[in-house]
Amino acid sequence: MGMNLNFVILFLALVAAPASADLDKARGTVIAVESGDVFDVQIDEAAPKTGSGMVKVRLAGVSLPPLESIEGKAAKEFSEALLMNRTVWLEIENQSDDGRDSFGRLLCVVYLEDPGGEINLTHPLSRIRVDAGHAEVDDSGDVEADLEDWLIWVVINEVEANPLDSDVDNEWVELYNDGFYDADVGNWTLTTAGGSVITIEPGTIVPALGFLVVTADGYWLRNNDELVILRDAEGLEVDRTPLLNDEDDDDYSWSRYPDGGDEWVYIEASPGQPVPPIEFSLGTISDLAEDENWLQWSVGCYPYGLWDVSDFIQ
User: Fold this and answer.
1) With 50 as the cut, is the pLDDT of residue 156 above it?
2) Which residues pair with 296 in a beta bridge?
3) pTM, to two decimals
């Protein structure tokens, strides 16, 4: 699957909490990289299993090529460019007394810290490595936690705010699961810029690489300056669209391209089906056209996508 996942998609996030309130979370700075999945972290905010000094960390749930191979060296270089001297959060996944694997390394799901000083839950490092093609999922060995939490990736994939003919009862939003496992999205919500809140029926499942079309009675999506936010059953934000304008009363909609990708295109609507080829689109997120129907960015909105090292280097 690897490079074809194009996430952003979105990760079924774990609830963030300060390290002081969570016995299995810690925060620190990466000071050395041993391989693509093993590195040294100087602890800044400790958990009982980390202590206050330096710990050697191994990524949970993935296996990487041998370090001496060409692929292994590339994975190490990726980690060095991405992690050196950066702040990370550690969620300890080995439930043994010391949280370590058989080699004494702290086994963790690792998250980068966003510019606001919070855990960036949407892109755990293990998932970044898998989608970059440097690693494979491996839930064997010392991992005791349920890795499905970071292998499920659900995003808002398509928005039809102005369907052909009447908008009433005909507007819809499509979700896409770009993950490895089926996703239970029961009691998840879609909130619009106008304040509408649509709750997905309990027990609703979006299969891996599958779609879910969410509809509602009445008029709930605006044709101008619309923004849709997806939240999980705990109220944690999972994904959001850019600010959308769709003034044409036609059968075109705004959709990610490819499905789950980081490009948005104005293209023939395809509810519950893969997005058509990009050459059939009337506009894309990259267009500089001033037509009022083109997608507009909202402040602070960053659509997720397959991350490259350059995304992290400032």
Assistant:
1) yes
2) 243
3) 0.60
